[in-house]
Amino acid sequence: MKKILLLILLPILAFAESTVSYVTFNDVYDKNLAQDAITRNEHPGFYFDFLVLHCLIRKYSPTSCFEIGTCDGSGTQVIKNAIREGTVYSLELAPEQQREYRLTKERIGSACRLPYIQLFGDSLSYNYAQNYPIDSWFIDGAHDYRHVSYESKQALKSRPKLIVWHDTDIPDVFNAIVDVFKDNKEYKLIRVSDTRVTYAISKIVVPGTTIFKKAAMHQANGAGVKEDK
Ligand SMILES: C[S@@+](CC[C@H](N)C(=O)[O-])C[C@H]1O[C@@H](n2cnc3c(N)ncnc32)[C@H](O)[C@@H]1O
């Protein structure tokens, strides 16, 4: 009997301890946040994926965003429109480094009509610190475990408020993210389950969490909100 009870309880306990929360598009979408969003329709589901990206940027108001994987710049345009005056960096393999997409210099970023900073290089060797401060990320480069794991760890080094990943319906992409955040207590990891998006939000900007409360007290005592001790 005890054994049966354990067999039933263990998966439930494991789920309860999971580092990921699950929400749906409707939980993130907000009519006011979505105002003047640039929408995309090139692939099924892109409309919802990129509206989620827009709403998250509008909700958390980062002042900069680093995109990994420019391609033709359609996503870059969504980000720049959402972030308004904020700075957008977008990294793409240089034409001579191109593998799968075989993008020419003319094609890279060509669909983005808004101002942003184009960077060329390999996400596995790029020196991200040269573009600090970076307080949000859109990770949408190579969709394999190694790249996503490395890029996510690099993103965390900038102590951003927001990280958004695309194509997290791909098991290798999602597993890499979950593994990177396994022991991380500073961020809430959220999978928007009816889209391809997963995002991480710093608990400092999520009202009601312990870190937020500590930061608020710190601020009330006359200090900035920057450090969470
Ligand atoms: C899915 S596409 C990006 C789509 C774009 N973010 C959008 O929203 O339209 C992936 C891009 O990542 C680029 N990429 C792949 N590996 C990369 C790497 N190691 N460093 C930088 N860019 C990379 C590819 O060349 C490709 O253009």
Mean pLDDT: 89
State the end-to-end CA separation.
Answer: 46 Å
Give me the number of helical elements.
Answer: 7
Main sheet record: 8 strands, mixed
What's the helix-strand series?
HEHHEHEEEHEHEEH
Low-confidence stretches: 9-17, 223-229
Indicate the multimeric state. Answer: single chain
The global form is globular
CATH architectural grouping: 3-Layer(aba) Sandwich
Given helix and strand content, the structural type is: alpha/beta
Given this structure, which CATH class is correct?
Alpha Beta
Number of domains: 1
Bound molecules: S-adenosylmethionine
CATH topology: Rossmann fold
Question: Biggest sheet, strands in spatial order?
Answer: 1-7-8-6-5-2-3-4
Write the layout of secondary structure elements.
Elements: H1 2-16, E1 20-23, H2 25-28, H3 46-60, E2 64-68, H4 74-83, E3 87-92, E4 117-120, E5 136-139, H5 145-157, E6 162-165, H6 171-181, E7 187-192, E8 198-202, H7 210-220
Helix pairs in contact: 3-4, 5-6
Bound molecules: S-adenosylmethionine.
Plain-language structure description:
The chain has a single domain, classed as Rossmann fold, CATH 3.40.50. It is of the alpha/beta class. 34% of the residues lie in helices and 17% in strands. It binds S-adenosylmethionine. S-adenosylmethionine (SAM) binds next to strand 2, helix 4 and strand 3. S-adenosylmethionine binds next to strand 2, helix 4 and strand 3.
